[in-house]
Design a protein that fits this description.
Length: 176
Amino acid sequence: MLSRRSKINLALSTVVLLFATGIYLASETNVGEQPVPLTGIKPENIAQIRIKNQQDRLVGLDKRETEWFMTSPYRAKADAVRIGGLLRITTTPTYLRLAAHSLDLVVYGLAAPIAFLYLDETEFAFGSTEPVHRRRYVLVDGRINLIDDGFYHHLMAKPEGFVAKPLPQNSEGALD
């Protein structure tokens, strides 16, 4: 048999557990809610990409017909797979959208962004990550958005990472 004190402790523990579960479930995106895409830009319509990060690396990429080429700092054919991964930012879901004009950008790491991405004329400024889900704050079109952090590695990559890799060939010159 439990003592009166043990029953009270058990009841309080149950209340705390239910409260913590409620907070956790409330912080998750509801299954019925559909996150909206970050932009209305169609990736296939983009013709120019510029990336500038805090290391002052500037990568320029231009589309010519259906192929991408690096124009800065080197002139070379660009890696189509990497470009495709980067362009997915236009359709990535945003889990939070706030008007930036009335907010302190320092709180979101956007007063001094870690990187800028320019897709044609649209500027994306990348800030810090939020601590709960490790999503990143991105300022675009006057709005602070919270997106999954799947683009940071592209923004911090060395320019060489965007150059197309030659396909391996066997000794007869045919592709493996």
